[in-house]
Amino acid sequence: MPRRRHAKVPGVADLGEEVLSRLLVGHWYFGAVEVHDDEQLRGLWEAYGHQLLADWILEHPGTRPWAWWKYSAPAEPRRRIGGIGTPRRGSPFWFGKPGQFEGDYVVANPPTWEPEVEYLRRHGLLTPSEAGAGPGKT
Questions:
Q1: What H or E segment, with its residue span, contains residue 112?
Q2: Under the phi-then-psi rule, with left for phi > 0, alpha for psi from -120 to 50, and beta for the rest, what region is 85?
Q3: In this structure, how many other beta carbons lie within 10 angstroms of the beta carbon of residue 56?
């Protein structure tokens, strides 16, 4: 009896460097083939996020990649712990904190936010291997 052939199921390695960079750190390469559509990025994260997240946690415990913050994080942003400045209304969030600020604020005293590891701990999102993670990225 002949065997059915299955189409190759793409894996994380097939996403390409530009797409991986966009999903993991939020950056893309100017002039390179890239994914612009937010729904397309969301779909890629939903398909490959579990694999990307597991690898990310091994290399960067106590932190999460850009796409996790954009598509999977709880709605509550990270807590502000210091500095001055007012987030611009409707500002996009970058790693759980506002990406743009209004008015003049003192560059010597920029807004500061709780470390990612504290946010994850507060929400019960640390994996067992991360439980002893240090201060994490701010």
A1: strand 112-113
A2: left
A3: 18
For residue 31, name the pLDDT band (cuts at 50, 70, 90): low
Q: Which residues contact 21 (CB under 8 A, 6 or more apart)?
A: 27, 28, 29
pLDDT band of 6, cuts 50, 70, 90 = very low
- The answer to whether the CB of 101 falls within 8 A of the CB of 87 is yes
Residue 80 is given by DSSP the state E
pTM attached to this predicted model: 0.79
Q: Which of helix, strand or coil describes residue 51?
A: helix
Q: Tell me: pLDDT of 22 over 50.
A: yes
Query: d(Cα 53, Cα 120) in Å, to the nearest integer?
Result: 14
Helix (H, G, I), strand (E, B) or coil at 94: strand
Determine contact, residues 110/37, Cβ cutoff 8 Å.
no
| Total Cβ atoms within 10 A of residue 48 | 19
CA distance 54 to 107: 36
Question: HEC profile for 20-41?
Answer: HHHHHHCCCCCCCCCCCCHHHH
